[in-house]
Amino acid sequence: MHHLVKARWALAAFTALFLIFLYGPFVVMGILSFQQGPEGGPQFPIIEWSTYWYEHVVGIAPASRIAPLPVGEALIRSLTLAFATMIVSTILGTMTAQAFRTKFKGSGFVFYLVVLGMMVPGVLLGLGMSLVAHQFGIDRNWWSTAFVLHVVYTFPFAFLVMLAIFNRFDSSVEEASLALGVSPRRTFQKVTFPIIFPGILSAMLFAFTLSYDEFPRTLFTGGSEVTMPLAIYGTFSVEIHPNLFAFGVLTTLFSFALLSVYAILMGLSARRLSVRSTGIQEDAA
Amino acid sequence: MLELVDFGKSYDGVNAIQNVSFNVNEDEYLTLLGPSGSGKTVLLRLIAGLDRPDTGRIILNGQDITTMPTHLRGIGFVQQKYALFPHMSVRQNISFGLINHHSSPIRDEKKVNYLCDEMLDIVGLSGLADRGVGQISGGQKQRVSLARTLVTKPKLCLLDEPLGALDANLRERMTVELRDIRTTLGVSFIHVTGNEDEALGMGDRMIVLDKGCVIQIEEPNKLFAMPASVKVARHVNSYNILSGSTENNSFVFADYKLPMAAYAKSAAFYVVGIDKVTIEKVGSVKRKAKDITSFEAKFVDAEFMGSRVVYQFELADGQIFEVERHLSRETPVDYKAGEVRCLSWKAADVLAFASDGGLINENAKIRGTV
């Protein structure tokens, strides 16, 4: 019994350390973002607490020698790209997973073909894509070549999420709907979709976040108009000011907001399901 | 109304269903008895169009629907595990087929609600319309599943072990209710079950399915009184089946020699209903009585079933011989384990089957061998 208690303490300590490593960088970034400005640098100690760098990011700080972060347009590009990628990948992923519900010839091979997109190193894929684009005389843009690669990258994730969802899905409710004289299309709309909706949300979240901070593929195929991760990287080569940290905190908060929306939607749909029934698969009572 | 012609289906080279042909008449309650693995559910799925048969055709009211997709067939299917829509209330489940029908959806909300309420009333669920399907009991789910199908007025309704998941009490009530509901609506039912009492008690006609083949189609009382083959007798589960051979008008098996009617010269199975046997003290039966057959057996155990008792006796070769006595006719007797009793029955109650399993008819028409 005694050594069990010890083991528990050891595990607790390990978990605590893990959490510190996980959130330490963010906490440091958060603290430094409140550095005094515009003279204060991106290091300790804090000269004086201030919100100067936040004002600087938003563009309401008095003019100084420090140039504003070139992230405004990049952020909009990144969000647009992530949104479009999310929609396309989730639709493709759902359709592919739907196809995999029935065994077909060569399904194993196709499965690996699909999953390959997330296995191939991004740098190589980006390089290859830029070579192909060059060969065919296609301009490289964030909304064309990079978009295609983002879909190639995120689609397998959406697919795997949906595959897991369909694995747990009891198709007898679809058959019940068909037997009631409801067309397959409407059956999907009214029966399948509402039941797999939590899964679709997860697939969307995956696709969005993966695309949102994608770096190597975009680097090679994004062209001259950079996305946010590239823009931030670009500022490193000049000089780092705490405005970058303030921006980091803001985007993280944005991500949290996104996650909260996801959690709320999940909660709502889970509650709807659990009120109506005790689970997706009804056990014989 | 519905006609199956030479239906067959195999999965991975194993025949699930073969050469199945039968008709379903208008306004008929057809039961289909088969043990698990006999292809019952496969057959229903084929009829509903959820699977395609490898061979054969299916004709509904004169139209060949073999390749028609499920939603166009107009055949209702009540699944074994209800398959209620988990994200909908009872009312939404029942009105789903009306609102979303592929060709004639009902858009008038009042009409939908009216039809819904009417059906809730028929299945005895009035007042539960706004419950979620997780908030009702198994029997109620079963009825929602039934109501959801019947409200769309299918030409034919398939029921896959509809009472299988219910407790005994509910099962008995639903047995009566199902028949009443069917009579009220005039829809034909195909009710699939592994329970012989259900199949015998509920069907206007019953089909016995064995390893994917239909082995008899008959009215239950006729089928029960005269199974067409030993297999059917086994499925009905109310017969003692002794296997042996016939020599000089007597049936020989293990150490026993039982008189056998003259017409059954080639009998290989000696079959007597478990409810046809009486239990008496050794020596009290007149062995010489011409129309009575008897032998002695060791009592093993008794199973009390409420209105009846099933006694089990062991024969010389170790086979179990069952005797069912109804308590409405006599009070139960306690026997001691190992006690030897004399079992007797009328010679006229004996059924003889040939070695291929076919019934040997008293009119000398030997089934199967002719």
Could you please describe the fold and organization of this structure?
The complex is a heterodimer of chains A (285) and B (370). Chain A is mostly helical and 285 residues long. Chain A has two domains: 29-66 and 241-285, no CATH class; 80-229, Orthogonal Bundle (MetI-like fold). Chain A is 71% helix and 0% strand. Chain A has helices at residues 2-32, 52-58, 72-99, 107-119, 122-135, 145-168, 172-179, 184-212, 216-221, 228-236, 243-276. In chain A, α2 (52-58) crosses α11 (243-276), α4 (107-119) packs across α6 (145-168) and α8 packs antiparallel against α11 (243-276). Chain A is globular. Mean pLDDT of chain A is 85; it is low at 277-285. In chain B, the strands form five sheets. Chain B has a six-stranded mixed sheet, with helices on both faces. In chain B, strands 16-20-17-18-19 form a five-stranded antiparallel sheet, with no helix packed on it. In chain B, strands 2-1-4-5 form a four-stranded antiparallel sheet, with helices on one face. Mean pLDDT of chain B is 85; it is low at 364-370. Chain B is elongated. Chain B has helices at 40-48, 70-73, 90-99, 109-122, 138-150, 168-185, 196-202, 220-225, 230-236; strands at 2-11, 14-24, 29-33, 55-60, 63-64, 75-78, 156-160, 188-193, 205-210, 213-218, 239-243, 245-247, 250-253, 256-259, 269-273, 278-280, 292-304, 308-314, 320-326, 340-346, 350-353, 359-360. Chain B contains nine helices and 22 strands. Chain B folds into two domains: 2-225, P-loop containing nucleotide triphosphate hydrolases (Rossmann fold, 3-Layer(aba) Sandwich), CATH 3.40.50.300; 238-360, RNA polymerase II/Efflux pump adaptor protein, barrel-sandwich hybrid domain (OB fold (Dihydrolipoamide Acetyltransferase, E2P)), CATH 2.40.50. In chain B, α3 packs parallel to α5 (138-150) and α4 packs across α5. At the A-B interface, α7, α8 and α11 of A face α2, β6 and α5 of B.
